[in-house]
Specification:
Blueprint lengths: L3 E7 L16 H14 L6 E6 L12 H18 L7 E6 L18 E7 L4
Parallel strand pairs: 2-3
Antiparallel strand pairs: 1-4, 2-4
Helix pairs in contact: 1-2
C-alpha cells in the first residue's frame, strides 16, 4: 500500500480467529502469530496493528464493535511481542470496528473480521 507492506489475517467461512464476540484467540491463531513474529523480527520497519470487525452489532455483554476490534488488535500485539518482537517497534494499536469493511456489500462476510499488521514505510 502507499503506507507500506500490509499483512492481513482474516477469518474465513469455516474458521474464526477469535471466539465469537471475544478477544480470546483460538490456539491456531496463537501458532500463526508466533510464526509471523519470527518473520517480522527479521524486518526493521515500525509496526501498526489494526483490528476490524464485521457488521454484526453487539448490544450486550463486554463488547461493542469498537471495543472488540481494539481488544483483538491489542491481543494480536501481545501475541507478536510474546513471539519475540521488540515492543519499541510498535507505533500504534488501532481498532476500526466495522468502519472499513473489506466487503462492504456483505457486512457480515467473514473476511471483514481481520487483523492487519502494517510494516510502515519510513517517512521522508
Amino acid at each position: 500500500t502507499e503506507e507500506g507492506v500490509l499483512i492481513s489475517i482474516t477469518d474465513d467461512y469455516d474458521f474464526g480467529m477469535f471466539a465469537v464476540s471475544s478477544a480470546e484467540p483460538r490456539p491456531q491463531l496463537v501458532l500463526v502469530m508466533e510464526k509471523l513474529a519470527e518473520v517480522l523480527a527479521k524486518q526493521k520497519e515500525p509496526l501498526i496493528v489494526r483490528g476490524h470487525t464485521d457488521g454484526r452489532q453487539y448490544k450486550k455483554g463486554t463488547y461493542d464493535n469498537w471495543r472488540l476490534s481494539t481488544a483483538r488488535a491489542h491481543m494480536a500485539y501481545y501475541m507478536l511481542v510474546r513471539g519475540g518482537l521488540d515492543e519499541s517497534r510498535f507505533e500504534k494499536v488501532e481498532g476500526y470496528a466495522d468502519k472499513r469493511l473489506r466487503q462492504p456489500k456483505d457486512p457480515m462476510a467473514a473476511p471483514n473480521r481481520r487483523i492487519e499488521i502494517l510494516l510502515r514505510r519510513p517517512r521522508g
